[in-house]
């Protein structure tokens, strides 16, 4: 198993110093091209096929990454923060540790080489604000990304977020991803990933996607989530998983739920499952959602 990196601050510095008409292509071909295998699976082109069309910059703007057009001298301090090798060391160690735990439990890593990077988050983006300044993505095996507004707190929390994403990375080496994936799979997947992060780092590193949920609302949240387990398609799932506010931002249907209620439900569902079955989380990670849900039907009542 090998974990490589794209060292983003060098590229951010190059973008910062570039002429405005050069920034986008440096971002596309130096920062994002190494992850092309990931973008291809999402059908995201490096450049738009027609003026104003969808491309990697537009996609990443939606996720909350800092757009290249705004990478200028005002971001110098944030870029310099990313030069701190201790950040990269802690993130690399988090990913390697998360992967090795699977090997130690006899779970084969079908992917042998992994690529990760750390990017700057856009502080104006609604997702960035709701996620308290840091986030990640690891759903495509072999590729792991994190992004943050550099601060003492986000730098401390990013390795746990990358362990969460590494869990996704291994799960989807075994579970086939489809565009008509249902809410049940997403709830189980996110619950496994967040429990995995806390298994390694401790519950004090629970993400805001869990801690912000008012536990007094959980009985109602669980009822709504349970009724929607068979809902399919990302547009339909978003309201359940991320809450109404995020659904509204993307003009998707609402489900009557607060911020990331689906994540919180998944976390407590998997926590319950692990305590009931005593199955190591590494082995639980590669089980079908239906098999896990079949063991914990009483969780919903």
Automatic annotation (TrEMBL):
InterPro entries: DUF2268. Residues 87-293 form the DUF2268 domain. It comes from the Bacteria. This is Uncharacterized protein YjaZ. It comes from Butyrivibrio fibrisolvens DSM 3071. The lineage of its organism: Bacteria, Bacillati, Bacillota, Clostridia, Lachnospirales.
């Amino acid at each position: 198993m090998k974990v490589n990196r794209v060292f983003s601050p060098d590229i951010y510095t190059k973008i910062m110093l570039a002429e405005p008409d050069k920034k986008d292509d440096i971002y596309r071909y130096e920062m994002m091209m190494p992850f092309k295998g990931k973008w291809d699976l999402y059908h995201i082109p490096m450049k738009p096929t027609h003026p104003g069309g969808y491309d990697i910059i537009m996609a990443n703007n939606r996720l909350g990454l800092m757009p290249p057009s705004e990478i200028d001298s005002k971001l110098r301090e944030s870029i310099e923060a990313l030069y701190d090798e201790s950040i990269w060391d802690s993130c690399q160690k988090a990913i390697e540790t998360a992967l090795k735990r699977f090997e130690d439990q006899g779970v084969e890593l079908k992917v042998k080489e992994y690529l990760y990077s750390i990017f700057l988050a856009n502080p104006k983006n609604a997702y960035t604000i709701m996620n308290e300044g840091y986030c990640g993505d690891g759903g495509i095996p072999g590729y792991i990304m994190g992004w943050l507004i550099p601060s003492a707190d986000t730098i401390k929390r990013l390795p746990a977020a990358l362990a969460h994403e590494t869990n996704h990375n291994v799960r989807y080496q075994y579970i086939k991803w489809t565009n008509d994936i249902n809410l049940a799979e997403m709830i189980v997947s996110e619950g496994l990933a967040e429990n995995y992060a806390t298994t390694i780092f401790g519950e004090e590193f629970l993400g805001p996607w869990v801690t912000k949920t008012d536990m007094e609302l959980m009985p109602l949240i669980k009822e709504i989530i349970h009724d929607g387990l068979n809902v399919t398609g990302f547009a339909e799932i978003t309201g359940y998983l991320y809450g109404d506010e995020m659904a509204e931002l993307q003009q998707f249907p609402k489900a009557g739920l607060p911020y990331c209620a689906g994540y919180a439900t998944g976390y407590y569902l998997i926590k319950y499952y692990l305590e009931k079955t005593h199955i190591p989380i590494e082995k639980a990670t590669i089980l079908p959602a239906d098999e896990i849900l079949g063991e914990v039907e009483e969780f919903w009542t």
